[in-house]
Amino acid sequence: MAAIGRRTGCLVLQLMKQNRKTFYDQLREHNKTAALLGSCRDKKNCKVVFSQQDLRKRLTPLQYHVTQEKGTESAFEGEYTHHKAHGIYKCVVCGTPLFKSETKFDSNSGWPSFYDVISPDAIMFTDDFSYGMHRIETGCSQCGAHLGHIFDDGPRPTGKRYCINSASLSFKPVDKNSAGEGSGSTSPAQTDKTEL
Asked: Is 10 a known active-site residue?
């Protein structure tokens, strides 16, 4: 019986490695394409470039540490960890839209987590071998700011968890005036409420 358990465990591990390898192969292919187009990591090929002096003036010390020095904020202490408002999460450095609030979920990791990005071109991926392990770092494709990491343990439909530092994000709430535009149907009760 123990031999069957070991075989099953080995089979599960083998399947996990195959799925992980497929995912990492896809990321590497994406990174090769990004490298041909120019990576923002060296800041010379970024579409949006800021001087370090300007960034130190505009960003808080924590925002600067996270986005420019690949730092990490303390778990469960970030501004957006338990944030529930509807809107768009943007790069704190350049303002590029990154995530919709509809894709945010509670992963109990201590950092804001999202299962999808606004656009596949909004984020770049880089191999990260720090702390003796292999992870995939996420960064803003426009300015190269460090955002966090991506993992394979997210919910459906993507199965991905973008684990992002609050310090690397800013938030733009949904404009209530334009939220109902284009629907074409408003009840008299809704009209009365908006006139108050």
From this structure: no
